Amino acid sequence: MSPLGRRLARWLPAALIVGGVVFDYVTPPQYTAAPFLSAAPLVAAPLYTLRATAVTVVAAVLSEVWVVTYHGEKDYYESVTEAVTVVVVALLALGINRVVRMSDARLASVRDVSEAAQRAVLPAPPEQLAGLAVAARYVGARADARIGGDLYAVQDTPYGVRMIVGDVRGKGLEAVEAAAVLIGAFREAAEQEATLEAVAGRLERALKREGGRREGPDRHEGFTTAVLAEVPAGERSVVRVLNRGHPAPLLLTPDGGLRELMPSSPALPLGLSDVAGWPDRSDETFLPAGALLLLFTDGVTEARDLLGRFYDPGGRLRGRRFAGPDDLLELLLDDVARHSGGAPADDMALLAVQRPLEG
Q1: Span 91-95, mean pLDDT?
Q2: pLDDT surpasses 60 at 19
Q3: Helix or strand or coil: residue 232?
Q4: Which of 17, 137, 167, 300 is most buried by its number of CB atoms within 10 A?
Q5: To the nearest whole percent, how much of the chain has pLDDT over 70?
Q6: How much is the pTM?
Q7: 204 pairs with which residues across the strands?
């Protein structure tokens, strides 16, 4: 719900009470305001605190007493029935409020745990890394689950700044576990292996070991789409990209230009070497001063609007200029939310780095 919608909803209980009193005042005695006055506490229960709900309850009951008194010539038993109905519904609203507040407390606890897990598995990268500006975002499709199988990592290594964005097949805790394994393997391999191809091989073996510990279909069918990239040490005008079945990164230049870094040869996702295997090959691209490299998962490209049209990040970002990676990611996420009309249908992990204008 939009902020305006929430503000209007919070005024609805008061509007129901006032509307009920006005309705009873301007209509003949055989008409009743009880439906309006009963609805007000029920609407307030999930929206208000216990104290505010209690105030709404008192206001509704007092309003019912007033309308019954105002129409004193009504049937006594009918008046009592209406009053009792409002009182019972009002008391029920207090109980609903209590249940909702307890549920909110549990949800807040779950969010705290999931946020702690996110910080442990996907820590926020430093704003500057070996002279490159860096920004990352993770957006969960569910409000009560802040982390899933999408992942990112970036670190400075003896071979340059290396990064990964990936998407583990599946959902739930198994996907989170696989993502944690993959990030751990990447951080170790990025420090030790001289090439991106060798890093990809280490990740492949790590996923095979992880899959061997699983039961059921995931033992043989687990895989991860991923894109690896590096800006070599001492050579910041170049970026190397190795793509394993993942959406292609975008290179945005300071003049508004945009290039999709498609792989020169297609490759299967990590974890599927038993299906078909061939040597990995990274592609090298010129990285202009001030350029932004954007890596993202398919939660971005699979976001749909009301007509079912997919979001096209290349088409939406082409021709635009950005102050830095943070500005790029904020605008992109806002644009995806507008396109899809709210919360994303799938998790999104995004990573952006920028080469400085100088040096």
Answers
A1: 87
A2: yes
A3: strand
A4: 167
A5: 82
A6: 0.69
A7: none
Bridging pattern class, strands 128-129 and 292-296: unpaired
DSSP state of 142: B
* Least-confidence region, from 148-157, 234-243, 269-278: 269-278
Residue partners of 191: CB distance under 8 A and separation at least 6: 155, 157, 158
Separation between Cα atoms, residue 132 and residue 290, nearest integer Å: 10
- Tokens standing for residue 177: 């576990």
Q: Please give the backbone phi and psi of residue 129, each rounded to the nearest 5 degrees, phi first.
A: -140, 110
Asked if 333 contacts 350 with a C-beta cutoff of 8 angstroms, the reply is: yes
CA distance 87 to 89: 6
Q: Residue 51's closest CA among 110, 99, 3, 98?
A: 98
The whole-number pLDDT of residue 30 equals 74
CB 38 within 8 A of CB 85: yes
What was the pLDDT predicted at 160?
95
What SS3 class is residue 351? strand
The whole-angstrom separation of Cα 304 and Cα 187 is 34
C-alpha span between 293 and 138 (Å, rounded): 17
Residue whose structure tokens are 């001492």: 234
Report the run of H or E that residue 180 belongs to, with start and end.
Answer: helix 172-192
Six token digits for residue 105: 């407390």
Q: Please give the pLDDT value at position 220.
A: 45
Of the candidates 290, 303, 299, the one whose C-alpha atom is nearest the C-alpha of residue 257 is 290
Tell me: pLDDT of 246 over 50: yes
Taking a C-beta distance cutoff of 8 angstroms, is the pair 204, 270 a contact?
yes
Nearest to 325 by CA among 295, 301, 300: 295
Report the distance separating Cα 349 and Cα 226, nearest Å. 11
Handedness of CA 83, 87, 89, 93 (dihedral sign): positive
